[in-house]
Amino acid sequence: MSFKSLGLSEALLKAISKKGYTKPSPIQKKAIPPVLEGYDVLASAQTGTGKTAGFTLPLLHILSENPKEKFRPIRALILTPTRELAAQVYANVREYSEFLNLRSAVIFGGVNQKPQVATIRQGIDVLVATPGRLLDLQNQGLLSLKRVEMFVLDEADRMLDMGFLRDIERVIKLMPEKRQNLMFSATFSKDIKKLAHGILTNPVQVEATPENTTVEAITQKVYRVAKGKKSGLIIKLISEGNWKQVLVFTRTKHGANNLCKKMIGAGITAAAIHGNKSQGARTKALSGFKNGGINVLVATDIAARGLDIPLLPHVVNFELPNISEDYVHRIGRTGRAGAKGEALSLVSADETTYLRDIQKLIDMKIPVEVIEGFEPDPNASTAPIKPGQNRQRRNNNQGGERRSKKTNTNTNSSRSSNRNNKSRRPKRNNERRN
Ligand code: AMP
User: Fold this and answer.
1) Which of 61, 211, 347, 368 matches a 20 to 30 Å C-alpha distance to 10?
2) How many Å lie between the centroid of ligand 1 and the Cα of residue 15?
3) Could you tell me if residue 346 is left (phi over 0), alpha (psi between -120 and 50 degrees) or otherwise beta?
4) Residues forming a β-bridge with 298
5) Domains observed in the chain
6) Tell me: the pLDDT tens digits for 373-394?
């Protein structure tokens, strides 16, 4: 199947070929046709599957088919949980719309709102936004969502994890009821299903797992080590292995900073990326990491979520995540696009329970190694880390946006939930344009 056979316009095909894509990814094959037909879509896909093009390409196709108005109201809204993801999605929108007469903008917190407002004032068709800044500007009367025809909720699961449910509900109320909705999520918890039920009307459900990020395709290893010797061990592995691009995960922002300092002290070029860093520092760290100027990027889970770093050879869990699913997300960053990847975890006694839960989830035993001089402490307790420490990541403001702590799962919806295939009916273009 080719992009052309999916029915995308010549202008989009030109942009796609400029990007170097030769064929649609599985999620693109599955999501693009129903979106083009006007259906609401509920997609199960995580970063690395090509999901961004999966919703952006048909969205741009539909918008470009509509007649332009002199004053351009915002006709499509793409909501993302983090600033990095917003910037990344926006970059994609810009690239794919290069040969179309469409304008776009991105807004997120942590930076001056003035340039963002100036762009919106000129009239834009597509807005990529994080919830906090979007509601801020709306409250100030600087933008209107009354003419939105298409709404994309990207990484919905992470949105809920970050406490954005209330904000999403507020955003929904600001848009017309008649619109096309696309929702993307890596996981499908009860809360996500409830949210989908509130937003989507008779959605087509599509699913795709990343092609090269299956757990089996990645070499995984556990190093059992004393807690106090972890920094020394990771420095030894990186230095002696001469690793050039390593993504290291810590559980907390404080932990990320500490480790980063130690690495720099040992002569390794490293940068930390987390919610307490300014947007400028985060962007600089990420681009340094991508272009090879920085060898090690130390990140917390939420900060790393959505980062588009292709062909990552090494991922190291300096600390195991207390949520097992995060382990799968983390190691999914290696071995992308057919490259072979290695995912290593430094595990101390107090992480024994986490390791057990992870192995249960991935249904395999990860090979264990002990390095001489970095042995585990035989007297250390295997009791898990204090709950206060565990919770820190979830409660910390990693994305720098406004977030309510409470994850209220009530969604107001008067819509029917008839998921019967026969009742699905593509919205006609004029309906969509209302
Ligand atoms: P995403 O899952 O949207 O973050 O995309 C992951 C990576 O795959 C990005 O670097 C995209 O540029 C790339 N990508 C998206 N679609 C395709 C495709 N059809 N062929 C090759 N690469 C793609």
Assistant:
1) 211
2) 13
3) beta
4) 248, 272
5) 4-207 (3.40.50.300), 218-369 (3.40.50.300)
6) 999 998 888 887 754 444 333 3
Ligand 1: distance of its center to the CA of 198 in Å?
29
Q: pLDDT at position 338, please?
A: 52
* Burial of residue 111 (number of CB atoms within 10 Å: 0-12, 13-18, 19+): middle
- Return the closest-CA partner of residue 199 out of 187, 185, 182, 184: 182
Q: Which residue has the tokens 């002290």?
A: 265
Q: Residue 144 and residue 150: Cα distance in Å, rounded?
A: 14
Candidates 8, 12, 21: which one to mutate for ligand 1, based on the most atoms within 8 Å of Cβ? Answer: 21
Taking only the tens place, the pLDDT of each residue in 82-125 is 988 999 999 999 999 999 999 999 999 989 999 999 999 999 99
Residues with CB under 6 A from ligand 1: 21, 24-25, 28, 47-53, 308, 310
Mutate to test the pocket of ligand 1, among 19, 185, 211 (most ligand atoms within 8 A of CB): 19
Q: At what angle do helices 51-65 and 26-36 cross, to 10 degrees?
A: 20
Query: What is the Å distance from ligand 1's center to 338 Cα?
Result: 13
* Ligand 1 centroid distance, CA of 276 (Å): 29
Contact 105, 125 (CB under 8 A): no
Shortest-distance atom of ligand 1 to CA 19: 12
Mean of the per-residue pLDDT values of the chain: 84
pLDDT at 343: 93
Look up residue 372 and give its amino acid. Answer: E
* Residue whose CA lies nearest to ligand 1 atom number 12: 50
More reliable by pLDDT, 53 or 45 = 53
> At a CB cut-off of 8 Å and minimum separation 6, what does 152 contact?
55, 59, 76, 77, 78, 79, 181, 182, 183, 184
For residue 61, give both structure tokens: 């196709």
Least-confidence region, from 15-29, 181-195, 298-312: 298-312
Residue 85, token pair as written in the block: 């993801």
361, pLDDT greater than 90? no
Task: Check whether 407 has a pLDDT greater than 70.
Answer: no
- Residue 46 tokens, joined: 């995580």
pLDDT in tens, 325-339: 788 878 877 765 455
Give bridge partners of residue 4 from the DSSP assignment: none
Flag whether the pTM goes above 0.90. no
Report the nearest atom of ligand 1 relative to the CA of 3.
Answer: 19
Question: Which amino acid makes up residue 281?
Answer: A
C-alpha distance from residue 396 to each of 108, 161, 261, 357, 390 (Å): 18, 11, 21, 24, 11
